[in-house]
Each structure stands twice: as structure tokens, then as C-alpha cells.
Amino acid sequence: MVQLDTVSAERLQPPRLPKTAELIADQLRRQIVRGDLAEGAALPSEAELLERFNVSRPTLREAFRVLESESLITVRRGAHGGARVQVPNIDVAARYAGFVLEFRGTTLADVYEARILIEPPIIGLLAARRTDADVERLRAALDEHEAAADSPLRAIRTHTAFHALLVELTGNQTLRVLTGMVQHIIDRANIDWVESKVATPEETGMSLGLKAHHRVVDLIEAGVETGAEEVWRKHLTEARDYLLRPDVTTVLDLMG
To answer: Where is the HTH gntR-type domain (predicted)?
Structure first.
């Protein structure tokens, strides 16, 4: 048995008590995350919050800075300013995940490999669960994609929206978050590439992608799970091979 006197004094130190600002931020955070405070809703005035929490102005403002850093509120200064609620979103989580991947020297090929492993089974799941309303939404998304064909940047955004819709329609929130984070990182890399290559062969790539999207919707509508999954795997593999040509930098650089 380990004797008490052999345990380092450091390990016996009492846990740090949270600062008052952290406790205030935690209360407000809980209200936002639980939906008690809606997107865009104004927090009570500074005077009201100072009275409610019985704290100093610097402490309250420190709590606001914590929530701002988490993208849970925005604060406008001045006579007509104040704090307004921002609900949690995938982009914030994806941004931090991107920092971690970039720190580890992750390549874009690595991200595409993860996507190819994750997304195809999702398409099979959607083919098994699809409803008529789901198919209508997918067809409408394809129409938007086609209408954006004359603009590479709009085309990549509607392409992204279509991928997100496929996952959304499964109804699985965990998959939406995971794929949304991967999609965000790929979108950032793709948008940077498209901006530097406007009016070059990416238009051909978008055209091929649109054909694959139409094909997968047909299979989803027909309830052909395996077929839809295989078409999507082939589509993602071809997209990876197209975007990772030798003349394209593949090491993640999301800080630029």
C-alpha cells in the first residue's frame, strides 16, 4: 500500500476553484446550449446582469470574453451595443479540429481517406430510410447545383450543400457533426484551390460530380442501398484523385 507521506505534495494540492467569471460564463453557456436563449437573442443589459450576479463590471466582461472566444455570443460596443446569442455550430468545432490536424502535419489526402471511409455507408443508410419528401429535397438541391454551373465558387458551395443534405436526411445528428467537420476542412481547401484556378479544368470536375449526384439520388429514390453506397464511394474516390493531382499542394494549410 502506498503511504501518504510518499505521495508528492503536488498531487495533494486542492483543486483550483473556478473564477467568478468562469461560473457566470458557465451559467450563460448552459442556457445557450440547452436552447433557453435563442439564436440572435439579446442578453439582459450589463446593469441587469451586474445586479443579478452581484459582480463587478470587469468580472462580467471577462465572462463575456470567455463566451466570445467560444463563439457563443457576439458583443457590440457603444450606446446601442450589447451581447447577443450565437448557437453552437459545426464550423467552430471544425476550425479547432483543423488546427489539430495541421499541427500534426496532416495531408489533404489523409482527410479524403477519412471521408471515403465515412460517407458511403451513410448513403446506404439514407437509401434505406428515404421518404418522398427526402427525394424532393435532394432533387431541389440538384436544381440549385445546376443553376450555379456558371460560377465555380457558387458551384462548390452548392456541391457542399448537397453533401451536407445527404447526411442531414439520415436524421443522425452525430454523423452530421462528424461529416460536417470533415466537409468544412475539405471545403476550405477546395475553395482556396478554386479561387486560384478560376476558369480552368475544375469546371469539368464539377460537371462530373453533378452527374454522380444525379445517379446517387436515382438509387436512393429506388432504395438500392448497396448500389447507392458504391456510386458514392466511386464519386468520392474520383474527386480525391482529381483534386490531388501533382500540381496541387496537398499538405493542409488552413491558417492562410
So the answer is: 18-88
